[in-house]
């Protein structure tokens, strides 16, 4: 009987894709084996700064608030842009602190769904992890689509500014969308070695662009608005009779500027010293994001000379109209928008990278259709090519939704922040309601006093968003301006539930978790030679002894 349960394995290595010479395992790789039971297959080629650059390029709050500018201006005007940004940042920081602690405790590419599986009661862990994973995965594909579509709008806006007789057609934006989507997929497949440097350079360009854009519009705009206008003017162009509801609905603008906050989490298995660096990256992303966003918001408010014209601009891109009002020069306005076009491209590359890493991790644990295929790593490119192709395909399909109906596509875009935050709510709620004791040692502990307070604030904020961000943006409501976010959320729930009933409850056990004592850690090297959540096997290799494989 014992011989059936164990077997002799010699010369095993977790640092190479094939069985070979045994080598020492880095702490990061040991953490990964202990947490997931999976052999490390991705190279840790991201430094702390490179991942911070990538994370900030995704969030890029100062250009993010520009991207959703029309909603903010109509739902509160300058008051929304400034005070709304401050309020959202305070609440977002509570979410970021919670994610930072969790990521240090469980530094895996699975992120939220893995944390949920670790913290939830054993009976409910697979189901809760399953739902969390689907909200997160679908949310990231929607994030990528929502950024990509902006490129077509920017490009056509520049053309319309020069040729006012041209009218924007959806098919034009669709062509740009699909073309750029293919380019970004190829970059993610073939650019593995250079992407950390691309993100790092992009960060410097982003900060430089932030300075150039803001100094240009402040220096060129004449006359400028008064301080009273900037800090005291409330505009309600939503149709809501209650200004409070209009303001709350407008908070989607600064909330959108923090979309993709967990981007760094899903690249954890490519980050060196992940336990220490992930919290730094997440918190720094919010801090830098706020500093750049609030300055941009104030600069824009001083330079809006004709608010009605900004909202009704023929280009369809309010920020281009603001650039033109400030500079009174079409060439300068187009140059500034080209800068934003580049930053949007960089953000899309990074968001697609995050999305395909999450698809790969979720497939590795057997949660997606054709998981055996999607979890594979290309032997030459050393990236999950099939996951990247699936990510491209999903985004391409969402492009056809845009071509068919802007209302339907806007519903998807509008709920991308909600999908992500719902996935955050799973592990944060578990921490708050008695599961904090199941956290593994973290290098960013919030403690038993501050931790629950911060988790409570984060959870209240997420619930607030789920309730109020489902409200229509404008009144009266009809089919074309209805907020369909609740429909999208319901569709995700139904899809994940049906697939759970058909397949998940039989095959998905959640991520593998291996608990190893510190004494055993010092004496034994653990490696994984078999993937998949169904078998949960770990190979324990003791120096100078027979190699035994134990089923856990």
Automatic annotation (TrEMBL):
This is Amino acid permease/ SLC12A domain-containing protein. Keywords: Membrane, Transmembrane, Transmembrane helix, Transport. InterPro entries: AA/rel_permease1. PANTHER family: AMINO-ACID PERMEASE BAT1 (PTHR45649), CHOLINE TRANSPORT PROTEIN (PTHR45649:SF7). It is a multi-pass membrane protein. One of its GO terms (cellular component) is membrane. The chain crosses the membrane at residues 49-74, 80-100, 131-162, 174-191, 203-222, 242-261, 281-307, 332-350, 383-403, 409-434, 446-469, 481-502.
């Amino acid at each position: 009987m014992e011989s059936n349960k164990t077997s002799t394995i010699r010369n095993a290595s977790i640092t190479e894709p094939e069985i070979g010479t045994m080598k020492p395992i880095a702490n990061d790789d040991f953490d990964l084996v202990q947490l997931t039971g999976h052999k490390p297959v991705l190279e840790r080629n991201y430094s702390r700064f490179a991942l911070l650059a990538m994370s900030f390029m995704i969030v890029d709050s100062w250009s993010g608030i520009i991207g959703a500018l029309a909603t903010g201006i109509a739902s509160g005007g300058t008051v929304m842009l400034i005070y709304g940004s401050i309020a959202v940042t305070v609440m977002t920081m509570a979410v970021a602190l919670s994610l930072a602690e969790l990521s240090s405790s469980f530094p895996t590419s699975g992120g939220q769904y893995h944390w949920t599986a670790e913290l939830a009661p054993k009976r409910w862990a697979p189901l809760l992890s399953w739902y969390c994973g689907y909200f997160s995965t679908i949310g990231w594909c929607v994030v990528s689509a929502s950024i990509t579509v902006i490129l077509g709008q920017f490009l056509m806006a520049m053309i319309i500014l020069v040729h006012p007789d041209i009218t924007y057609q959806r098919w034009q934006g669709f062509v740009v969308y699909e073309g750029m989507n293919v380019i970004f997929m190829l970059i993610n497949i073939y650019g593995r070695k250079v992407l950390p440097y691309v993100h790092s350079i992009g960060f410097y360009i982003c900060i430089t662009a932030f300075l150039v854009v803001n100094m240009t519009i402040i220096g060129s705009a004449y006359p400028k608005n008064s301080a009273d206008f900037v800090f005291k003017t409330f505009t309600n162009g939503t149709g809501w009779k209650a200004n409070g509801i209009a303001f709350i609905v407008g908070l989607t603008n600064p909330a959108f500027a923090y979309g993709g906050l967990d981007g760094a989490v899903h690249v954890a298995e490519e980050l060196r010293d992940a336990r220490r660096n992930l919290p730094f990256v997440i918190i720094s992303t919010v801090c830098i994001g706020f500093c750049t966003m609030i300055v941009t918001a104030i600069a824009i408010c001083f330079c809006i000379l004709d608010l009605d014209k900004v909202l009704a601009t023929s280009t369809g891109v309010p920020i281009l109209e603001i650039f033109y009002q400030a500079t009174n020069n079409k060439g300068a306005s187009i140059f500034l928008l080209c800068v934003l076009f580049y930053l949007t491209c960089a953000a899309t590359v990074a968001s697609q990278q995050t999305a395909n890493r999450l698809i790969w991790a979720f497939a590795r644990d057997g949660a997606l259709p054709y998981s055996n295929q999607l979890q594979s790593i290309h032997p030459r490119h050393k990236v999950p090519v099939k996951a990247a192709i699936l990510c491209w395909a999903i985004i391409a399909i969402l492009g056809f939704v845009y071509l068919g109906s802007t209302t339907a596509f806007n519903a998807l875009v509008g709920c991308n922040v909600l999908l992500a935050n719902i996935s955050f709510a799973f592990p944060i709620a578990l921490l708050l309601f008695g599961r904090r004791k199941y956290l593994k040692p973290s290098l960013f502990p919030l403690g038993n006093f501050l931790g629950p307070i911060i988790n409570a604030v984060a959870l209240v904020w997420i619930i607030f968003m789920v309730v109020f961000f489902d409200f229509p943006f404008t009144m009266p409501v009809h089919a074309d301006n209805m907020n369909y976010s609740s429909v999208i959320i319901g569709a995700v729930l139904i899809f994940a539930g049906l697939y759970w009933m058909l397949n998940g409850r039989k095959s998905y056990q959640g991520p593998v978790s291996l608990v190893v004592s510190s004494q055993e850690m010092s004496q034994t090297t653990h490696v994984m030679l078999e993937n998949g959540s169904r078998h949960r096997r770990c190979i324990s290799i003791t120096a100078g002894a027979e190699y035994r494989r134990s089923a856990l």
